[in-house]
Design goal:
By secondary structure, this protein is of the alpha/beta class. The protein has helices spanning 4-19, 23-34, 39-54, 56-64, 76-91, 97-110, 117-128, 143-151, 155-165, 167-177, 192-201, 241-250, 267-275, 286-298, 343-347, 350-367, 390-399, 427-430, and strands at 184-187, 206-208, 215-218, 236-238, 257-260, 278-283, 304-308, 323-329, 371-381, 403-405, 423-425, 435-442.
Length: 443
């Protein structure tokens, strides 16, 4: 039998590729289902899952060079076994080549693909002789193709980022995306000492974040935040420092009435409830709304209300209300979160960006009605495409003259702002997930 770590990684990769699951959620569920795992096995399962997704485009190039069958023609369990084996051969050099190949063959048998075990063995044995992917295209001849192959990013993403940031910085962003994101928690206001004590009791070291005052960066190898002592007691919640900056960028007054229009998973809604007078957190999906309400209860936030509704339509009970702050953390392509969600780059297409940009424009036009005169609409996305960021804001301002672009809050970290005062975090610059946000003031 293969090791528990490899079996878990294979099951998660199958759920991601065939069921559209998010790797982090599928991995957490698989770990819990497996019961008590040795720390070494849990760490290996995590490395194999994320590493295989992160480098999948490179792994497929390497496998194609040694296979007489197109990968697209293979059954998904066979592809998963090949990719896991290829990842170990190319990126996990602690494992001897023979062991990596044998584990992949055994895994194929356990996944009911025994008839293909000989094929898996042959392809991986050929790859084990070089333990390298084919060389990328020449940087001089095909600079985009070179970076695409070197960093396992789809070509269309590299093209867009190169046009936007320039070739050199686009490459740095792609390289940063290939690194494992650090685990970060946002500590409940006033609970820093208690949170640190709880983490120490759990044997987890933590250091302050670079940008957000309530951020703690956990040491490598820390378990998921919801499994750490102190989480259930409401001392902290998992939230990347870039996401925390969005809430700080909103900068609501202590008595402000806030509408979080697309609130799931709820981190920003809870953060705003600690900063403002009251928050109405709205999301389309009732299941997600329930999760937000549970988080608010855990954190002791009695000023946060939840509602399941489509904000593209009049919000039930809020049609005649106005708010000091409306946050639209809009659905987006998610290309700023590739460190945490590498499967996103394998799923997204240029057509998705255009489709999502249209949805964002529709939502902006709908929620602006809830901003009171003089109030603020903050538009935010966790992506890095001009169509969903700067161009979206410019289109909105052109179509909605009662709004203007507002300055960033006083004292906000200038390193996280663009020349217009919009929030922009780029992973290679700030070490956070990539976010964009703009403050739009009703005049």
């Amino acid at each position: 039998m293969t090791t528990p770590a490899r079996r878990i990684a294979a099951e998660v990769l199958l759920r991601v590729s065939t069921g559209g699951a998010f790797a982090n959620l599928a991995l957490d569920a698989a770990m819990r289902q497996a019961g008590v795992l040795e720390p070494r096995e849990a760490a290996l399962a995590t490395e194999l899952t994320y590493g295989t997704l992160r480098w999948q485009l490179e792994l497929d190039r390497a496998l194609a060079a040694h296979s007489d069958r197109a990968l697209a023609e293979l059954d998904e369990p066979v592809r998963v076994c090949l990719r896991l084996g290829a990842f170990e051969l190319l990126h996990h050099h602690k494992v001897p080549p023979r062991a990596a190949v044998n584990e992949a063959v055994e895994l194929a048998k356990e996944l009911k693909a025994a008839r293909a075990s000989g094929f898996v063995n042959a392809v991986l044995r050929r790859l084990s002789e070089t333990r390298a992917a084919p060389l990328p295209p020449s940087r001089e001849v095909d600079p985009v193709g070179h970076v695409s192959a070197l960093t396992a990013h789809p070509r269309w993403i590299v093209e867009r980022w190169s046009r936007w940031l320039g070739a050199a910085e686009a490459e740095q962003l792609c390289i940063a995306n290939q690194k494992q994101a650090q685990a970060v928690v946002r500590v409940k206001r006033g609970a820093l000492a208690d949170a640190r004590a709880a983490l120490l009791r759990a044997g987890i070291e933590a250091v302050p974040g670079r940008w957000a005052p309530d951020a703690l960066v956990l040491a490598s190898g820390a378990p998921p935040a919801l499994d750490i002592e102190g989480h259930d007691e409401g001392l902290f919640q998992a939230q990347d420092e870039g996401a925390q900056l969005v809430g700080l960028y909103c900068a609501p007054a202590p008595d402000a009435r806030v509408l979080d229009a697309c609130a799931a998973p709820g981190g920003k809604a809870c953060q705003l409830a600690e900063l403002a007078g009251s928050v109405l957190a709205v999301d389309l999906h009732a299941r997600k709304v329930k999760t937000i309400a549970e988080a608010a209860t855990r954190l002791g936030l009695s000023n946060l209300q939840t509602l399941a509704a489509d904000v593209a339509l009049p919000i039930p009970g809020a049609a005649d209300q106005s708010f000091d702050l409306v946050l639209l953390d809009a659905p987006c392509s998610g290309l700023g979160t590739l460190r945490r969600h590498p499967e996103v780059k394998l799923r997204r297409t240029p057509e998705d960006v255009d489709r999502l940009a249209q949805l964002q424009a529709k939502l902006l036009a709908a929620v602006q009605r809830y901003v009171k005169p003089g109030g603020l609409l903050v538009y935010a996305v966790c992506t890095l495409t001009p169509e969903e960021c700067d161009e979206q804001v410019d289109r909105f301002l052109g179509a909605t003259p009662q709004f203007r672009l507002d300055a960033a809050p006083a004292g906000f970290a200038p390193e996280c702002l663009d020349p217009r005062g919009c929030l922009r975090t780029l992973t290679h610059r700030t070490g956070t997930d990539g976010f964009f946000a703009a403050r739009l003031r009703r005049i």
